From TrEMBL, chain A:
PANTHER family given in the database record: CONSERVED WITHIN P. AEROPHILUM, PEROXIREDOXIN FAMILY PROTEIN
InterPro entries: DsrE2-like, DsrEFH-like
Organism expressing this protein natively: Haloarcula amylolytica JCM 13557
Protein name, entry field: NADH dehydrogenase
Pfam families membership: DrsE_2 (PF13686)
From TrEMBL, chain B:
Pfam family, one: TusA
Coiled coil: none
Species annotation: Haloarcula amylolytica JCM 13557
Family stated for the protein in its record: Belongs to the sulfur carrier protein TusA family.
InterPro entries tied to this protein: TusA-like, TusA-like_sf
Superkingdom as given in the UniProt entry: Archaea
PROSITE patterns membership: UPF0033 (PS01148)
Domain UPF0033: 11-35
Secretion signal span: none
Name by which UniProt lists this protein: SirA family protein
Length: 190, 81
């Protein structure tokens, strides 16, 4: 005697029509899910405002935009300075705390040394034809990168919304950033 | 230069360094018509790997050829859609 389920339909077995409808429904859901994946997304959180740390988020943002990614860069704390029209042109390189600097920390800590190392780096940037921060920012904005300035830190730093480059989004917080990160294929904290 | 394709436009990014060769190539490609080939002249040695990687990872473009000259790296990118 076989214990297999009998082929004959019983009351709780879906009909062929019901199964066909279910297949259609699942195919539609699959098509929708996969079509949304066509555009890749990258979400960067930029927290640093030194000259060297301003570069990575902007280089990656502009390059990802060139790949056709949707890019959001959420700037918070010192990262706000990258979006600050005036301060972005005046970012400093710290001479202390970096053992790769060609000077001991005791010398690096002398007042004015940050200005010296910053000038040295600015000269290198100019000589190497490396793009400036302003150039990278304007390029990224042109390419559709969304730059967001964290509202809590704008208030904390006593900045004004008008201080930022045109096109920068203000009035956003951690929840906005988190949602972007959840949707993104690449998430980076710089 | 190369008999297999006609060059529709030449982009000169000599002197520019990462990420500008890729970023400017993308902008120049946007202005071309489907099927057009863009010639990119660069001095950044990283552009050989970067433009190759960009073309492989980007929809609607295809790397046709790359030439490593004495001082100039030449890239040929076709817009495919």
């Amino acid at each position: 005697m076989s214990t297999d389920t009998p082929d004959a339909p019983s009351d709780d077995t879906p009909s062929r029509a019901e199964l066909a409808a279910r297949v259609d429904e699942l195919e539609d859901a699959l098509a929708e899910a996969t079509s949304e994946d066509d555009t890749k997304k990258m979400s960067i959180i930029a927290t640093k405002g030194t000259l060297d740390m301003a570069y990575p988020p902007l280089i990656l943002a502009s390059t990802a935009a060139a790949f056709g990614y949707e890019v959001t860069v959420f700037h918070t704390f010192w990262g706000l300075d990258i979006l600050h029209e005036e301060r972005s042109k005046n970012l400093k390189l710290s001479s202390v705390g970096n053992p790769n600097m060609p000077m001991p920390n005791a010398v690096a800590a002398i007042p004015g040394m940050d200005r010296v190392t910053t000038k040295m780096m600015e000269k290198r940037i100019a000589n190497n034809d490396t793009a400036t921060i302003e150039e990278l920012l304007e390029t990224s904005l042109d390419m559709g990168v969304e730059f967001q300035a964290c509202q809590m830190t704008i208030d904390l730093m006593d900045y004004d919304e008008d201080d930022f480059y045109d096109g920068v989004t203000t009035g956003v917080g951690a929840a906005t950033a988190l949602q972007d990160m959840a949707d993104a294929d690449i998430q980076l904290l710089v | 230069m190369n008999a297999e394709f006609d060059i529709a436009e030449t982009l000169d990014v000599k002197g520019a360094s990462c990420p500008m060769p890729v970023v400017k190539t993308k902008s120049a490609i946007d202005d071309l018509a489907e099927g057009d080939v863009l010639e990119v002249l660069a001095t950044d040695p990283g552009s050989m790997s970067d433009i190759d990687g960009w073309a492989a990872g980007t929809a609607g473009v295809e790397l046709v050829d790359q030439e490593e000259g004495d001082d100039v790296y030449k890239h040929y990118v076709r817009k495919t859609e």
